[in-house]
Amino acid sequence: MVQTVGVLALQGAFAKHIAMFRQLGLHAKEVRQVSDLDGVHGLCIPGGESTAMSKMMVRWDLLSPLKERLCSGMPVLGTCAGLILLSNHVRDWEELPRLGGLDVTVQRNAYGRQIDSFGAPVELNLAQDKSTSPYSGVFIRAPRIEEHEVGADVEILGTRAGEAVLVRQGNILAATFHPELTDDDRIHRWFINTMMNS
Amino acid sequence: MSENMNWSERQTSVWRTNVGLAEMLKGGVIMDVVTPEQAKIAEDAGASAVMALERVPADIRADGGVARMSDPKMIRGIQEAVSIPVMAKCRIGHFMEARILEALGVDFIDESEVLTPADDQFHVDKRAFKVPFVCGCRNLGEALRRIGEGAVMIRTKGEAGTGDVIEAVRHMRTLMGDIRALTVLPSDQLMTAAKDMGAPFDLVEEVARTGKLPVPNFSAGGVATPADAALMMHLGAESVFVGSGIFKSGDPVKRAKAIVEAVVHYNDPAKLAEISEDLGEPMVGINCDDLGDKERLAVRGW
Question: Which residues contact B284 (CB under 8 A, 6 or more apart)?
Fold first, then answer.
């Protein structure tokens, strides 16, 4: 049976994630309300504005149903704003309503404004991924995972200049950059093969 | 490298990163604000970005005179008030206003027909900047000229400051129709199509091949209600700019929230009914048919 990924479509780059999951042979659908979660095997929280997404999750009562699925072990991929919404701690914004589950402290817009956004090589450390070609990460008003605030259960699967930028904790995979904006599908493929098919 | 490679695949990494920010703003609402307090209201309502300016288009219209870039102090105030991206407008062709806005660290520059144009022949060479630009258009030729100059987001112009959605609809329908028409042309007719619409050939080729613009396509100019916003999303907009429509209405807090929600649930009429309830007075508005040619902002730029 082909699995279905539900991509949170409250705002942001959801269409790019959906295109990538479909290219890799999965069903992908937009999640805008609780009933859209029916028949979903995995979740994706895209990049966008974390404040805007948080407001809409509260407004349409999506926080608890999503948290329940996360707690029951449903695999989830979060990118950029998605990572912020999955983080247990947000520097200077602890009150932001969010999902949590990932034992890190994250700083929003940590690199500055849009003129400070950048592309940079990411060193991937994905078991089962034998490709050695460099991965280029796109960092857009990106958050930063604080160095000394990474929990013991958090595996670091990608680094940029020594900093953790791709992390996994159990059923959560999260990146500070945007794998959906490149043609390189290694991270989505790894998520599907390792986390959705296990 | 294949010689059939699309135009967008040949662009720089700065271009990619900037288109990336435009992607992040999809499915959202970008609101005009004139004070830090309004910016806060917009952010609290779930806006994906704010446009910092001294007067909303309805007031620019009413006041007349020359409309210029906003005071940097006012822009800074708004940058300090919110964490969402802050955009600001420069006059068409005024590359020094653009340089000043870039130095201020605004996240996006709108080279906008709402301000009085500074150059009647040349738009800003946007490829020379690191900061991303959004530009208005009324049809595909205009969109592709701006993209060719380096704009990483297109918005249809509509008629700003009227609260009348007819021009926004006209421009979006024209743009989408132009795109669809290209996709059915055989390749030996594309050069003539490029010549007729005055657009760069490579971009015409890419649109003919992909059936869409190489950058996000938003809507602006005349959206005043949740239903207007949903309408524009159905016609092909990927996000909506709302200028005077919010802070010139009776209850900006409610209306701002409602328009954000309408963009998310544009495909769900029952939810839209709930969202549209009890919002107070919309902005009074001006019927676009009553505007003289000299009062139209959309004809600025080429």
Answer: B163, B248
In residues, how long is chain B? Answer: 302
| Neighboring chain B residues of A115 at a CB cutoff of 8 Å | 102, 105, 130-131
Give the residues across from B87 on adjacent strands: B51, B108
A141 touches chain B (CB under 8 A): yes
Alpha carbons A151 and A138: distance in angstroms, whole number: 25
Report how far residue B243's alpha carbon sits from residue B161's, in angstroms, rounded to the nearest whole number: 7
Shortest CB distance from B105 goes to which of A93, A115, A138?
A: A115
Q: Which tens digit of pLDDT belongs to each residue from A9-47?
A: 999 999 999 999 999 999 999 999 999 999 999 999 999
Best mutation target, A95, A115, A138, to test chain B (most B CBs within 10 A): A115
What confidence score (pLDDT) does residue B111 get?
98
What φ, ψ does residue B232 adopt, rounded to 5°? -65, -35
Least Cα distance to B215 among B145, B125, B160 occurs for B145
- Report the chain B residue with the minimal C-alpha distance to residue A92: B83
From the candidates B73, B89, B248, B254, which is the catalytic residue? B89
Interface pTM, i.e. ipTM = 0.93
A86 has a chain B CB within 8 A of its CB? no
Which of A90, A58, A61, A65 lies closest to A176 in space, CA to CA?
A: A90
* Residue A161 identity: A
Upper half-sphere CA count for residue B112 (Cβ side, 13 Å): 29
Q: What is the pLDDT, as a whole number, of residue B1?
A: 43
Among A13, A109, A118, beta carbon nearest to B24: A13
Q: Do residue A13 and residue B131 have CB atoms under 8 angstroms apart? A: no
Residues in A 116-135 with any Cβ partner in B closer than 8 A: 117-119
| Inter-chain CB proximity A48 and B20 less than 8 Å | no
C-alpha B202/C-alpha B205 separation (Å) is: 5
B46: amino acid identity, one letter: G
Where chain B has pLDDT below 70, the residues are 1-4
Pairing of strands A42-45, A76-79: parallel
The answer to whether the CB atoms of A59 and B261 lie below 8 A apart is yes
Which residues of chain A have a pLDDT value below 50? none
Rounded Cα distance, A53 and A59, in Å: 10
DSSP A90-141: ETT-TTS-----EEEEEETTTT-SGGG-EEEEEEE--TT----S-EEEEESS
Q: Is B68 within 8 Å of B115 (Cβ atoms)?
A: yes
Give the one of A32, A93, A115 whose C-beta lies nearest to B130's C-beta. A115
pTM: 0.94
